[in-house]
Amino acid sequence: MSHTMAAFLEITLKINDEGRPSAAGVYQEYKQPFLSSIAGATSKELLIREEDVQVLHGCDTVANAEDYLVSELFTADVVGGLAPLLQADPEIRIYQVA
After folding, report:
1. Burial letters 18-45, b for 16+ CB under 10 A, else e
2. For the chain, does the N or the C end have fewer beta carbons within 10 angstroms?
3. What are residue 7's DSSP bridge partners?
């Protein structure tokens, strides 16, 4: 029986209320490019809590999640769009699905 690997890349962002609409715009702008151009990308969700915002990226492997973090799409476009809105450095975690 083949076992399908899966991983999640979770990026937690400290963004104040005034910055959240702009952050949501960055999410919307780069959701489709993530899904269509990043190897192994399977999903991207925006999760909003009172204390922070999380972007949960689904990938087929941990390696592909790690590759996204050094891609031009992430380092130039996403980080460039979010940097002015951040109140603290993002927390980045990668999980492998058990």
Report:
1. ebeeebeebbeebbeebeeebebbeebe
2. N
3. 59, 96
Distance from C-alpha of 33 to C-alpha of 73, rounded to nearest angstrom: 8
pLDDT of residue 5: 77
| CATH class of the region 7-96 | alpha beta
Mean pLDDT of all residues belonging to the chain: 94
60 with 7: CB under 8 angstroms?
A: yes
Q: What is the DSSP string of 10-53?
A: EEEE-B-GGGHHHHHHHHHHHHHHHHHHSTTEEEEEEEE-SS-E
Distances (CA, A) of 1 to 4, 5, 90: 10, 13, 38
Cα separation, 25 vs 5, in Å, equals 30
The tokens describing 11, both together, are: 């990026």
